[in-house]
Design goal:
alpha/beta, ProC C-terminal domain-like fold, 8 strands, Rossmann fold, binds NADP nicotinamide-adenine-dinucleotide phosphate, single chain
């Protein structure tokens, strides 16, 4: 479905680059199908030099080329950027926004024209094709639009279509989540170091342990508590470790982290 389509990425920052890199490396898009715009000329040169992707510092220039407009700018500047491009868009174009907190209603209102708009919430593991992207579609979209968005984001990992009411929670969980997990990985690796393991060995052991545990949850469909019980032998070592985690309030802390990140996502759309 994307073969003949042109995609313009507005905002060539971290996420813009992650997505472009992966669209190209998986063969989902050819460089001729991509355009990028950014405030910084240096970023445009960077994309042209490293990926052969053409671009401009003028958002309206790249919007004119596009079948799909991918908004990868910060939520705080969303209304200004949209105000700058709305005269250049038409209802045959599909707009996909990855901005945290900016609702479909706000996006549709800012564009004025009744454009098909989709919200996508990816995360940084998209960089290695292990991302999680949740999609929600606005009023003027049809099945083909959603299919196109799914195809695009399937190249960077898993996709799921949900109602928009879940988006702040999704942002707090799967979009912010990698940072929470990195902190857990870092802390567990320190645990290995405390017990005498070299740091690189410790980090490798933790990363593979997290990968294995995540795959067990995803692939066996067993409740994490049951999987945890399988590791925990009576009067063994694991139960002593778990006791320390409970004492330190790990569960409550992680629940609060997701809740707080989701609260901030809601707030961002209003700034
Ligand atoms: N990072 C994540 O894990 C993640 C996950 C899911 C969704 N998101 C969403 O992805 C979006 C982008 O995040 P990011 O981390 O990639 O941000 P970023 O690195 O700041 O990228 C945005 C880029 O757009 C540029 N820019 C600023 N004003 C512009 C304008 N008027 N026209 C065109 N480009 C402009 C920025 O330049 P300056 O740096 O000079 O401002 C920057 O290069 C955000 O809305 C965020 O909510 C992020």
């Amino acid at each position: 479905m994307l073969k003949e389509k042109k995609i313009s990425v507005i905002g060539g920052g971290k996420m813009g680059e992650t997505l472009i890199t992966r669209f190209l490396s998986t063969g989902t898009l050819k460089k001729e199908q991509l355009f990028v715009s950014d405030k910084h000329e240096s970023r445009i040169t960077y994309f042209e030099k490293n990926f052969g992707v053409k671009g401009s510092t003028d958002n309206t220039e790249v919007v004119k080329e596009a079948d799909i407009i991918l908004l990868c700018i910060k939520p705080q500047i969303a209304s200004d950027v949209i105000a700058g491009i709305r005269e250049s868009v038409n209802p045959d174009q599909l707009v996909i926004s990855i901005m945290a907190g900016v609702t479909l209603k706000q996006l549709q209102k800012s564009f004025v024209l009744p454009l098909p708009v989709i919200r996508a919430m990816p995360n940084t593991p998209c960089e290695i094709g292990a991302g999680m992207t949740v999609l929600a579609s606005g009023n003027a979209t049809n099945g083909k639009h959603i299919q196109r968005a799914e195809e695009l984001f399937s190249s960077v990992g898993k996709t799921m279509v949900l109602e928009e009411k879940h988006f702040d929670a999704v942002t707090g969980l799967s979009a912010s989540g990698p940072a929470f997990i990195y902190m857990v990985i870092e802390a567990l690796a320190e645990g290995g170091v405390k017990c005498g393991l070299p740091r690189d060995v410790s980090t490798t052991l933790v990363a593979q342990t997290c990968l294995g545990a995540a795959r067990m949850v995803a692939e066996t469909n067993q409740h994490p508590a049951i999987l945890k019980d399988h590791v925990t032998t009576p009067a063994g070592c694991t139960i002593d470790g778990l006791l320390k985690l409970e004492e330190g309030g790990l569960r409550v802390t992680l629940i609060k982290a997701v809740d707080e990140a989701a609260r901030r996502a809601k707030e961002l759309g209003k700034e």
